[in-house]
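To: structure desk
From: M.T.
Subject: fold request, one chain
Message: Could you run this one when you get a chance? Sequence is below, nothing fancy, just the single chain.
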Amino acid sequence: MKSITFRITGRGPLMMDNNQTADPRNEYAKRLKELHKASKRKGADVDAILEKQSILRVKAGLYWNKELGLYIPAANLRAAFIDGAKLDRMGANCKRYAIIAGPAKLIHGGSDDLDEIANDPRYRYDSIMKSGMVQVPTTRAIVPEWSCEFTINYSGNDKMNRDDIIHFITQSGNFCGIGASRGYGFGRFSVEVQDAKGKYPKRKAA
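Reply: Done. Structure tokens follow.
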């Protein structure tokens, strides 16, 4: 197989939505449930509990592990790649003839310690959401400034070539994005392509 490596850089914040709390057995899900119960008790310090919930939601929403720190899963990169290809009705070919080599470590301006990230207001997006007939505060995880590198392995054939792949990733960055809430403009990115020497084009001075 052939390969091509990209560096993508966010044009705005990346919103993350690791949906691990959908599993009631998840530790974050259990802790959030406990805090919710605590908020209903007489005399509860609701503001303090809401703050603890917000910090937990940031932790739960991030893709993070000890090896990489913050990262974008290969599945998310694949989805962004396919979304870009779908604009040219080439999504099926991407599924057949290309694979993402692995997850991508995020380069960002903060710590790689999960507790420090969760307590950094730059990585927190507070909003109001509808729950049944009422509106309630909630918090989601964002990465304000970010970039990452990833590799696509592909079968070079008459169905899809290197130029096609570059085009699809570029379209994804311009019109689709990656991560959560893409429809609201989160996760858009610019694209650079690594050359045969493992280097990227020199960036123009601002």
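Reply (cont.): The radius of gyration is 19 Å. Let me know if you need anything else for the meeting.
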